[in-house]
Design a protein that fits this description.
Number of domains: 3
Strand order of the largest sheet: 1-3-10-5-8
Shape: elongated
CATH architecture of the largest domain: Sandwich
CATH class of the largest domain: Mainly Beta
Largest sheet: 5 strands, mixed
Strand content: 15-25%
Distance between the termini: 52 Å
Number of helices: 9
Order of helices and strands: HHHHHHHEEEEEEEEEEHEEH
């Protein structure tokens, strides 16, 4: 499926380049009316299709969208399905959806959505990114990870576990950028340590975020304890959770819980070893590319994350008393009162809490 989606994306990029050759869109593009059906008014609702047809027959945008215009759309606009029937936030078997801006944005990320089917992945992506616009963040005062967007220096297991992770320090903010295209761009943050520790992670990003906590090293055993994909442009994300003993990493990437974002965040820095050619397309930036991360170290008994272990933490622990259900899907946005990590909130956790009072 992912290979099919990638191939479709390449075809759509070539198709978009072809559209650019037909000249600027008429003032009637877009307009009301289905491009594949004749109607009295000039122009039609699909901007790309309308532009193609009117470049061949200007009368379609000057007088009326007659049968000849509709036939030209059927012949020349195969694969253009924005807008189309169906809500963008609901899955349906046909390609495209009814909101052009949302349809165009999601299809720029995943060409499958306007080529083959507006499936559950397309609908969830639409829910996450449509209607948000750009959400710039302030990264002043943060230390730059110093990774050019055309390189992959912090990709953890992708380049080497020892050297491919960003060292985290308590109370120190870091900043950087991600890029799509080529090998997947990830930011691995080293969270190794002795014993279980509580941290507060503050994250801001200008792009759809996929954040996961990876326990173990590359050789194994290892596992992803949790993965979350917060909504775009909802402000800073603050997580208060316990880091396990031994090797572990926080992994930041662009995407959601279904798939990584492979398009729409092109690197806009010039690679001196592979400079762009004069006829190369301009970088496509559907979102901002910057992120800011800060890790604060807390006492393990500071369950509410207010910087003090006190009566409120005791009350929170007692409210969570008992065994954690088998198969429980851990969410770092929820309360974590299992201080000793044995799967039960009980008397030993009270002892751990008082030891960190």
């Amino acid at each position: 499926m992912k290979c099919a989606r990638a191939a479709t994306r390449f075809m759509l990029l070539c198709f978009t380049a072809a559209i650019a050759l037909v000249g600027p869109a008429s003032a009637q593009c877009p307009s009301s009316g289905d491009c594949r059906t004749p109607h009295e008014t000039p122009g039609c609702e699909m901007p790309e299709c309308c532009t193609i047809v009117c470049a061949l027959n200007p009368l379609c945008c000057e007088i009326t969208w007659d049968q000849a215009c509709a036939d030209a759309a059927i012949d020349g606009c195969d694969g253009i399905n924005c807008p189309a029937i169906g809500l963008c936030t609901e899955a349906h078997p046909t390609p495209g959806c009814s909101d052009f801006q949302c349809c165009d944005l999601v299809s720029s990320i995943d060409g499958w959505c306007s080529w083959a089917s507006w499936d559950e992945l397309c609908a969830r992506m639409a829910t996450q990114v449509c209607g948000q616009g750009m959400c710039p963040i302030d990264v002043s005062g943060a230390i730059d990870e110093a990774e050019p967007c055309y390189q992959r220096l912090s990709d953890g297991c992708g380049i080497g576990y020892a050297s491919g992770r960003i060292v985290t320090e308590c109370g120190v903010a870091m900043k950087g950028r991600v890029a799509s295209g080529g090998p997947r761009d990830l930011e691995w943050f080293a969270m190794d340590g002795v014993g279980r520790r509580r941290v507060r992670l503050a994250l801001e990003a200008e792009f759809p975020v996929e954040l996961q906590y990876f326990r173990g090293d590359c050789e194994g055993p290892n596992e992803v304890k949790w993965l979350i994909a917060p909504a775009l442009c909802t402000g800073a994300l603050s997580l208060n959770f316990i880091v396990d003993n031994g090797a572990s990493s926080m992994i930041l990437g662009a995407g959601n819980s279904d798939e990584s974002l492979r398009n729409g965040l092109d690197c806009d820095e010039i690679n001196p070893d592979n400079p762009p050619q004069p006829d190369d397309p301009l970088p496509e930036m559907l979102f901002g590319a910057r992120w800011r991360v800060r890790v604060d170290c807390l006492a393990i008994g500071d369950i509410d994350g207010n910087g003090t272990v006190g009566p409120q933490d005791v009350a929170t622990l007692l409210n969570a008393w008992g065994a954690i259900a088998a198969g429980f899907a851990f969410d770092p946005r929820a309360i974590d009162a299992d201080l000793d990590g044995n799967g039960v909130v009980g008397a030993p956790d009270i002892a751990v809490l008082f030891n960190s009072w």
